[in-house]
Amino acid sequence: MALQQIVDISGVDSPPFAERGQFGTRALPLAARRARRDDRMVVASLIVADIVVLSVACVLAMMIRGRLAFLGVSQDLPDSLVASSLVITGAWLVSMLVFGASNPRVIGSGAEIYRGVLLGTLGTVGFVGAVLFLADIPLSRPYFVVLFLVGPLLLLLVRTVARRMVNLSRSRGRLRAQVLVVGSTGHVRGIVRTLRREVWLGYDVVGAVAPISDERRDEDAGVPILGDESQMLDLVRAVQPDVVLFTAGSSASAEEFRRVAWKLEELEVDVIVVPGLSEISSDRIRMRPVAGLPLVHMDLPRSRKALKKGKRIFDVVASSALLLFLSPVFAVTAVCIRLGDGGGVIFRQKRVGRGGEPIEFLKFRSMVLDAEARRVELEQLARDRGNDVLFKMSDDPRITPVGRVLRRYSLDELPQLWNVLRGDMSLVGPRPALPTEVEGYDADAHRRLAVRPGITGLWQVSGRSDLSWDDTVRLDLFYVDNWSFMQDLLILVRTVRAVLASRGAY
C-alpha cells in the first residue's frame, strides 16, 4: 500500500455499529490522549527550535548588514532593529503555523512540512513588506535581505533534523500510535504488512475488525480479529486505539460512515481512510470534492515519460561531466586492480536492458578471474533474506581484497557511466538484470524492463542487497509507474548517502 495515499481525515465516519455491548460503555481514551500529548510535544519542540534559529538569523542579519553597503544602509537605530526583529519573528512563526510547517502528522514523510516553511516565509515577506510600505517604516535593506535568505535555510535544517529524530524515535518504539483496522481480511493484511515494514511511520496495529463471514480470518489478516463491524464502537472503547483505519473492504455506506465518525470524534479517536489504490505517488493523485463526494483523480502511469528527451539529455550531460571529473579515480582504481592479481580491469557481462534488449554491462572487476565458473556451486547455498531471484551473498568468497573496497563504496559501478553515455542505461532506473534472472520474472516483474535500467535506483537507496526480492520489485515498479524528474534528483542525492553508509553493499 503506497504511503502517500493514506488520507488522514480525523473526523469522518464508518459503519453502523452498536454504541454499547459486551465491552461496556464509553471509556475515556487514555491512548488517544497520550498520542495527542506526543504531538503537542513535537509541535512545542519545533516552535522552540524555530525561535532559536530565527533569533540566530536576526543576529547574523544585524552583523552582516553593515558590510553590504551596495544595497544601501538606512539610519535606523539598533533598538529599532531589535523591535523589528521581534515583530518579524512573531509574524514568521504565526505564518508557518498557518501553512502547516509544524504539523506533526506530516513531519515523518512527504514534502508538506518543507512546503509549509517556504509558504510561511513568502507570507511573512509579503506581510512585512506591506507594513513597511504602508507605515513608511525605515528598515535596513541588507538586514531584510540577509534575514530572509538565512532564515529559511535554518528553518529547513530544523525540519530535516526533526524528521530524522521523529522517525528514529518511532523506529525505537517511541512516539507511536495504536491502530485498529476495519475492513476485509485481504485489505487488512496489506495494511498490516505495510505498517510493519515501514516502522518509521509510528503505527502499531493492535487488532482488526472484519466481516464475520471471513474464514481463517486471523491467519489471513496477520493480526487478531477482535470482532465484526457491529461491535466496532465497543471495541474502540475497550481497546482505546489512537487511530481507527478504514480500508477499502469496510462495508459502511456514506451515511453510516458519517454517523460513526461522530461517535469516534466524541471518543477523541482519529480516523484514517485508505482508498483502494496502491503504490501510487501523491503527485499522481488529485482529490476534488464534488457534491459531497471525494472524487480521486489519478494520472496514468509514467513509464513513457521516463523515456522523454529531457531525461536523456540530463543523462548525457551528467555522465559526460562525471566521466571527466572522475577520470583520476578511474586511473587509480585500474592500477589497483591490475596490481592486485594481474588480471583484467573491466568486467563485461550480458544484461537485459529496456524492452528485453541485451546490453553489454560494464564494471570494474571486483572478483577473481574464474568468478563465473564458481557461481554455479555457490548458487545452491542459502540466499540472503529470501531472495529467490537475485543471487547475492554478503560473504561471497569470489570477491578480491581490492574488490571489497570497491564494492563498499560502489566504485566498481563507475564504468557504467559509459553505458549511460551511449544510451544503454540511465543514471536512475531499475537495476539491469541477468538473462537468467529475467527468465524467473513473473508478469509484474517484467514491467521493470519498461524503462532504461539505471546505475542507481529506488531500491538501491532503500537498502540495496539487504532487501528481499519482493521489496526490490515493489520499489522498482513504484519508480516505473511514478517517475518524475524531481524523484530522480532525490534518488541521486540519497545515493551519495547510501554509498557513504555502505549499508547493503555486497
Q: What report would you give on this structure?
A:
- This protein is α/β, with parallel strands linked by helices and 506 residues long.
- It has helices spanning 30-65, 78-98, 112-135, 141-171, 185-197, 217-221, 232-239, 254-266, 309-325, 327-341, 371-378, 401-408, 416-421, 435-439, 469-481, 485-501; strands spanning 7-8, 177-182, 203-209, 225-227, 243-246, 270-273, 285-290, 293-298, 346-352, 358-364, 426-428, 454-456.
- It has 16 helices and twelve strands.
- The longest helix has 36 residues, at 30-65.
- It starts with 6 loop residues before the first strand and ends in a 5-residue tail after the last helix.
- Mean pLDDT is 79; it is low at 1-29 and 70-77.
- The strands form four sheets. The protein has a six-stranded mixed beta sheet, sandwiched between helices. Strands 7-8 form a two-stranded antiparallel ribbon. Strands 9-10 form a two-stranded antiparallel ribbon.
- Helix 1 (30-65) packs antiparallel against helix 2 (78-98), helix 1 (30-65) runs antiparallel to helix 4 and helix 3 packs antiparallel against helix 4.
- It folds into three domains: 3-16 and 176-298, Rossmann fold (3-Layer(aba) Sandwich); 39-171, no CATH class; 305-501, no CATH class.
- The protein is globular, with a radius of gyration of 28 Å.
- 47% of the residues lie in helices and 11% in strands.
